[in-house]
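The data layer described in this paper is built around a simple, fixed record for each protein. Such a record has a labelled line for the sequence and another for the backbone structure tokens. For reference, a complete record is included directly beneath this paragraph.
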Amino acid sequence: MNTNEEEELLTLACRAFETCTKLNAHLLPVAEERIHPSARRQYQPDGYLRIGPQGHLFLAEAKTRLQPGTIGQLRSINDQAGELVVLVVPYVSSQQGEKLRQHDIQYLDTAGNAYLHAADRSFFVLVSGQRQPLAEPPTQHRAFQPAGVQLLYHLLSTPVLLQASYRAMAEQAQVALGSVSILLRSLQQLGLLREEAGRRRWTDPAQVLRRWVDAYGEVVRPRLTAQRYRWLDPGVARQGWQDLPLGPDTLWGGEPAAHLLLDGYLLPEYFTLYTTASRAEVMQRLRLVPDAHGKVEVLRPMDTIFHPDRPQPQAVHPLLAYADLIITTDPRNREVAHLLYEQYLPYLT
């Protein structure tokens, strides 16, 4: 979302909250950094909400929709901010609200559904069961549609590419040459990219990374053809998966990628594979059995994840492994993602 769309969503949510609860809810400008200076060092909220008779202050994270990885993303953001952040989306169903509350994810929507509380629980609001508004939710900005996500993947994983020609960017990211200038202009309009003295630079690299992870989890990953399997030999999950013959068309992602990139720090429980091989080839090569509830997920990747700039030949780039871990709901994975960030992505701080 761009800034105007975020502001509109937050404003609509505040109005709906006031209508349902008869409590005040005001959107404050992000520029008021004096409110939470410590939180802003690591996390840039989409807005501040002052709510209730005592004027409790909440950091707001605006999303176009709820996705399977949203809980993991919000828990990671809560860790970065050092306090609870309110998720603001167009609509939260009763079932979705229950799941969010199980993870203590506070939320507001434009129908008036809400779950809010102060740190000491002196202020608590729960509204559930409000019907979904008829208005269409805001859409993702063009920079965070599939082509933009693919280009950003390369700009973030290969920092020198940011200073390259449009043609070089298009060739490496395998996007249309004409779209590169449009996508870069879109990033400038969002205030994420700036050009000074003939050089491009990110205004807030950590914010760009967060927005990219969000878009990858919300827009791109759900579109990747996914299949689930279990190991023919269950013992492979503990010992032996590292020695499987992947071939040049297959890479480990998620937990196994982190294991390889961090010298065995994380013992994988769930296995993510990115491959362009056929289903039959994957099953035969890796001795897998189809299972809708299996712990091996095989995805057909974005076109360009096999580029050579990877520190581990059997694993995806740390940037993609980081995203895979962040969009899960496992707190262990968030901790490991932070280690990947510190070791491989410090230039995005």
Remarks:
- The CA atoms of residues 76 and 334 lie 6 Å apart.
